[in-house]
Amino acid sequence: MANDLLGNGPALVTAVLPSGGTSVARVSLSAERYLCDSKLAATIDRVAWRTIAGSTRSKVLDSQTEPMVDHKPMLNAGVMQWVSVYLPSYLLPGYPAVLHAFRADSSIAMVPEQVRQLQDVTGATQPFAGPTRTRLFVFDGSAEPMVAEDDWNVLDSKLKLEILARMRQLLEQTTESAEPTCDRVAHVARSGQMVSVRYNAFADHPAAEGKPAVIVAVQPSVDEWLAIQPNDLPADREFGRFLPALKFISDQSSNSPTLLNIARSVHLSQFHFHRKFGELIGMTPKQYMLECQIAKAQSLLSEGVLELSKVAELCGFSHQSHFTSRFKQTTGLTPSRWRKLVRQPGS
Known about the structure:
Elements: E1 11-16, E2 22-27, H1 38-53, E3 60-62, H2 72-76, E4 81-87, E5 97-103, H3 112-124, E6 136-140, H4 149-153, H5 157-173, E7 181-188, E8 194-205, E9 211-218, H6 222-227, H7 237-252, H8 259-265, H9 270-281, H10 285-303, H11 308-314, H12 320-331, H13 335-343
Antiparallel strand pairs: 1-2, 1-5, 3-4, 4-5, 6-9, 7-8, 8-9
């Protein structure tokens, strides 16, 4: 995203991750101090979720027209005006973000024309051309969609039913005293394709005004993960530090690298790497490595040249039966059936 998105004034971008959490992906120099205060950082996160929950393709929260009680820390920090603009996609296609712009002067209102200019800049610097279907959904305690309802309504019907069933189970397990409940499930769409979905259920969440909510994220592909570059999120150095590990796992997946080797590639301990990888990426290193192996297998199968046993060997599986089992578990099809469908799309 172009640097002029933030300009010279205090501004930052809060991006939603496939893990269901958020990251301050970009921040102007004049806004860095806001992140040093935990109360301010929490306020920015709450505003981001409330903007996303109330999103349209050009939603703006303006402190002058929509005051919020949880903005007090911002007022104490000298922020008198701010707007929060919904971005349909940022780091990954279909994963939203919020652009926040702040002003210390309350004597001159941020007029609608200025807000429109901010939205125009946001749209002009979107990294994904054309319309992108939302893959991040927020549901309230009644399992009703609060974000991107139109995209939810056109989602694969079988996938929707499976998501709703699992989401309702999680909501039943979530109580006011419970910790957030996380889950990652491989669902089967009508096409037979397996779709990986991450769930995060909360007893109270800012997107639902402090009431129960579930964040549902259809997970990205390996290629989409690998397309993210450290300069896409310069404000989150920790996330940026993990990006080389994604490439290392992808490059070495056929050799089945150990957790120790992967952690060493980014100079971290096994324990810290494993914990933070799950928090940031939304899956374990082992799960991500399997996805890399399956992606490589699909590429080889689509060429239609190699025997299945050779494909299994080149992708790091100990034997063909293990490969077949893991491939079907991940994609919903056997390698033979998958290759036939890809090589003969009309069949």
